[in-house]
Amino acid sequence: MFDKPAFAGHESVHHFFDAKTGLRAIIAIHSTARGPAAGGCRMWNYVTSDDAFTDVLRLSEGMSYKNAMADLPLGGGKAVIWGNSKTDKTPELFRALGRAINSLNGKYWSAEDVGVSVNDMAFAAEETKYVSGLSTGKAASGDPSPVTANGVFLGLKATALRAFGTDDLNGRHIAVQGVGHVGAYLCGHLAKAGARLTITDVNTEALEAVAKATGAAIVAPTEIYDVAADIFSPNALGAIINPETLPRLKVKVVAGGANNQLATPEMGDRLREQGILYAPDYVINGGGIINVAAEIAGAYDPAWVEAKVQRLVQTLGEVLDQAGTEGRATNRVADEIARRRLVAIS
Ligand code: NAD
Question: Is 80 exceeded by the pLDDT of residue 345?
Answer without folding.
Answer: no
